[in-house]
Amino acid sequence: MVCGGRAWDGLVEADVMARALVDAGVEASRLVRERLSMTTIENLRLGSALLQQHGRSGVLALVSCDWHLPRALRIADAMGLVAFGCPAAAPAPPLPRRVARALRERLLRAVVPLLV
Fold it and tell me: Residue 105 CB: number of other CB atoms within 10 A?
């Protein structure tokens, strides 16, 4: 399952991830794409619904950039999903952006129960 409907330079996130998985040897027929979600909450809501439609359930492996993964796991937990994290290394932005991002992520993790 690959989730993400945002388009960057005309490329939809789910399609880019699916292509990378196929290039790494995953059979295209095994992939399900969720191409409508625009937020992490929507990724998990729509993605878990699609998995259920395909008769899949259980523990999720969440793959996200290392700085975003804690929030994604917090959201999954708040939604009652069982998940473990697989961090993907992200390039470090300049210090001011890193500090702002860290503060934003900490705040959003704190308010997750209010958002879900």
Answer: 16
